[in-house]
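Sequence in, structure out. First:
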Amino acid sequence: MRWWDIDRVAELDTVLFGPDTWTPEFFWSQLASPVARMTIAVEVGDGLCGYVGVSVAGAQADILTIGTAPSAQGRGLGRRLLGHAADSARDAGAEVLHLDVAADNSAALGLYRSFGFDELGRRPDYYAGADAIVMRAFL
């Protein structure tokens, strides 16, 4: 992701996650971070279709955010973004990938389970109206 993508990514994040959204300032902080982070914005034509952010610290990596535009959902873009993030984390030396997902997001849960993610635990009321499921996959 480049700095000029931030406003569009933040707008899409708001559409997808409402009150749990990241601010443009937070995306800026991720882009400027000296920690090994890869954030990818995917575009088709002039439209932003999806993004993913991953943080790597030694053998541990975390999916910080991932989202696909409603018009792009169900077409395999989330799978490609997650695969790219996992590959990037593995290439940076990570052996384990973690993420949090809203317990009521059945589409995302299905995707993550198909990638080999297992549930580690829950964070009650982490999101507006939903618990977070903490998941882990070995790379």
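Second:
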Amino acid sequence: MTPEDCTGNDNAAAPLVAGDRPWTNREGIEEYNIRWHWITQSSTSGFTAVLRVKNEAKSLPFVLPPILRSVEHVLLVDNNSTDGTPQLARKIAGEEGLEEKLEVLSYPFEVSRCGPEHLATYPDSVHSLAYFYNWSFSHVRTRYALKWDGDMVLSPEGEQILRDLAWQLEGIEGVVTSPRSPVYVESEQVAYLDTSPGVTEPWGWRNSPAYTISKAFDWELRLPNPGDPVIRLPNHTCFELKWLEADEFAHWSHTEFKETINARKRREWELFYSLHSGAEMPEGVVRIESPKDIHVVKYLRKLFTETLRNMSTKRTMRSTTSES
């Protein structure tokens, strides 16, 4: 797809405006107009996790079971997968006995990649990342929406944290933020965990007109509103899978990540190619090797919290030693 040049358009980086009428797209495809299902009254309906996915069949066996166990509903929006992602999602939910929690939708349009391609796409186009996100989240029918990626794995402790949050947030209007630790998977037995403190991003918010997705320069954006209570989840809540044999940056239209605005993505890029080339292991990265009878991702779930705590203790000790 060649995105339209709208860098000079006054609305290029502006949020769409919520209202009673459906949000229409500039292509005039009525079936994919955005029809919100906001909950503005008191509700105990909990979380819907919204996964926007494309070719995540490799990650889903590790991602889906814990999130299905932890929230009221899981909405998986597939964007032209060619690896059987939607079918596998249904299969996994059935095997877990949780098929009633899963809803699978299709979004059949090519979505502009992050970076310049995203910037050059009108926010009300079906090809816009912001429009895709808003269309996906418009199907949420619970009190809270949870943005969840198709490569994010909840730790056992994270499962309990999400279950507890559902009732803790019943009476308030707030935003949930969470860090996530990248895990670079080399093989079924070997992976590398980046334990450096990461950026904390908004992942959960009220399903109401006050919370919609806007277009920013490089990607979509959902920031807390002024005065919102912010609930920050612990570092050990979840980790993010990156497969060293895959093209983990295919959803970007450039890879010239600047330290000032793309520091997290720049580190991911440098770590990915450092580990891929077999170079010396960077600081803050821990090699994880599992026994032969268990996949390294399942193995890491069991010791994720302990590993992060140990590394945090070591950093504190080094800092104390250097100061003295």
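Remark: The longest strand covers residues 47-53.
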